[in-house]
Specification:
By secondary structure, the protein is α+β, with helices and mostly antiparallel strands. It contains 15 helices and 22 strands.
């Protein structure tokens, strides 16, 4: 080789480079190779001189190289010339080595033969770059799936989470369309559960096909993912015979798909299909991350589904502890509201009831059981049903005494479940309605007079379920036309704002007194709205609450 302009032989300079330099003539044979080839590809440099360039290439690339090199000789133009491309090279031991290849062309002097043209190739070990790229890709995929999981945690139930799964997954992983398949009622086939497309994209053919399609285990891409319990990749949908819907995919311009199962233990919850309109490689790292994500999302969705079932059962139980509707009391308007407590309280301990008595009177009850959950619900049921059974036999104090006896009888070895309650017997009279009130450790009801002022009524007795010898004082008062009586549980007055300040009885008195008409429904609505304002943005968990109002029209 000639000397450089510094007087140092070019071969000496090239030998000092860490990269492998290969020089080939126009005939495609190696004219020079630097010593670094031994470290990179395991070859003796001297043994390579005179051999064709194909000796450094895997067998599958040699035909393409011959065609490309022939065009290059004829035109002087090559796709790889002047650019750096990542390709596999063939090691002397027979395995492949990823290299970054940069090609340059040296134009021969005037009058020289085309075979004198020189091609200079610089080969650099790409393993470090590939490793970094893979690590970056894995971190990006993991971050995306974490964001998917984080988004799903905001869903209130499994159905909402499933609807959010496709758009969140596609957005985070940058795919153009997605379909979700779920087992049918018998678990024998997968049926279409949803299709999502990126903004500006559309897959009408695929969506139309999905509406009438189902898959058995092992059938099509979803069935394959179900059978293997692992992701399935189709990098070229046009030629993939697993894709039963190939025609629809071609009509929509879809090129690549990756499908993965959503698993919870041994159960298949769903299969997700991701589609791209561009031909894109699906690296092993993404496949592994999707396999992990499918299991992680499956566990989360299974938990959500179980929680949904528990909430449905809790709602059913809660409804059984409250009247399905308020009855009509002649000459009295009724309104009520109930709101469950914080997230931890699936079933609250508050209840109310209104029932007619054989002698024309009406019983009105409101009660609050200490605690929440199934045990509290059982105590609530005992309280409500005992009060109903005892209502025909005596006054308000007698009803409370019967409930007290029943609760003491039901107390087991668990924690004490005492109950506070107000029992009201309502009787029509010429001046309005006469009320007989008994209170057992409960917040006193508020009476709004026809003129607009409000004050507590009744005398507080001890809670139920503690003392067998307790007595419950009664108080009688009149509900004239224009008056309103408000019964409530302590979830109203003890509602705390973010600073911890309680709503309080004084504020409740103000709200009741300042309600413009004092009608039952208007009063209940005003109290509920005031409590909601108190709780807005509060970090403190709220108790369940009940409000029951009775008003006598003018």
């Amino acid at each position: 080789m000639p000397e450089s302009t510094s007087g140092v032989p070019a071969a000496t300079l090239l030998a000092a480079l860490p990269d492998t330099v290969v020089v080939a003539g126009g005939d495609g044979r190696i004219a020079y190779v630097s010593p670094a080839v031994t470290v990179l590809l395991g070859h003796d440099p001297a043994a390579l001189v005179g051999r064709p360039l194909q000796v450094l290439m895997p067998e599958r690339l040699r035909s393409g190289h011959n065609d490309g090199f022939s065009r290059y000789r004829a035109t002087g133009v090559g796709k790889l010339v002047g650019a750096t491309t990542q390709l596999p090279a063939l090691h002397a031991a027979g395995h492949e080595v990823a290299v970054d290849l940069t090609l340059s062309r040296l134009t021969p002097t005037e009058g020289a033969s085309p075979d004198d043209a020189l091609v200079v190739a610089v080969l650099r070990d790409a393993s470090t770059t590939i490793l970094l790229e893979r690590q970056f890709a894995v971190s990006r995929y993991l971050a995306a799936t974490l964001r998917v999981t984080a988004a799903l945690t905001e869903a209130r139930d499994a159905d909402v989470a499933f609807r959010q799964l496709l758009p969140t997954l596609c957005t985070e992983l940058d795919w153009d369309a997605a379909q979700l398949w779920q087992p049918d009622g018998d678990g024998g086939r997968l049926v279409h559960a949803g299709t999502w497309t990126a903004p500006g994209a559309a897959v009408p053919a695929l969506e139309s096909d999905a509406a009438r399609r189902s898959f058995r285990r092992g059938e099509g891409l979803p069935g394959q993912a179900w059978l293997r319990r692992a992701p399935v990749v189709a990098e070229d949908l046009a030629s993939d015979d697993q894709l039963i819907r190939g025609r629809a995919a071609r009509e929509d311009g879809l090129r690549t798909a990756v499908v993965f199962p959503v698993l919870s233990g041994g159960s298949l919850l769903a299969v997700c299909e991701l589609f791209s309109t561009a031909h894109r490689p699906v690296p092993d790292e993404l496949v592994e991350v999707l396999a992990h994500a499918g299991r992680q999302i499956g566990q989360f969705l299974a938990r959500l589904r179980a929680e949904s079932v528990v909430r449905e059962l809790a709602d059913t139980l809660q409804r059984s502890l409250l009247p399905s509707h308020l009855p009509t009391i002649p000459g009295v308007r009724l309104a009520a509201t109930y709101r469950a407590g914080g997230e931890a309280a699936l079933v609250g301990g508050d209840t109310y009831d209104v029932m007619p008595l054989p002698d024309g009177r009406w019983m009105v009850l409101i009660a609050d059981v200490c605690g929440t959950g199934a045990e509290a619900a059982a105590v609530t049921a005992v309280t409500r049903h005992t009060a109903r059974a005892a209502a025909a036999a005596g006054g308000a104090a007698d009803i409370l005494a019967a409930v007290n006896t029943a609760l003491l009888h039901e107390q087991g070895g668990g924690p004490l479940r005492f109950v506070t309650a107000c029992c009201l017997l309502l009787e029509p009279v010429a001046e309005g309605h006469r009320a007989t009130l008994g209170v057992a450790g409960h917040p006193l009801p508020l009476l709004r007079s026809p003129g607009g002022g409000a004050h507590p009524v009744g005398r507080a007795g001890r809670p139920l379920g503690i003392d067998p010898d307790v007595a419950f004082p009664e108080e009688e008062f009149l509900l004239p036309p224009g008056a309103t009586l408000v019964l409530y549980t302590d979830g109203v007055t003890e509602a705390r704002d973010d600073s911890g300040a309680q709503f309080g009885e004084d504020e409740l008195l103000r709200v009741v007194a300042e309600t413009p008409t004092g009608e039952a429904q208007e009063t209940v609505t005003a109290v509920s709205a005031a409590v909601e304002r108190q709780l807005a943005g509060s970090r403190h968990e709220h108790d369940d609450l009940a409000v029951l109002a009775l008003s006598v029209p003018r």
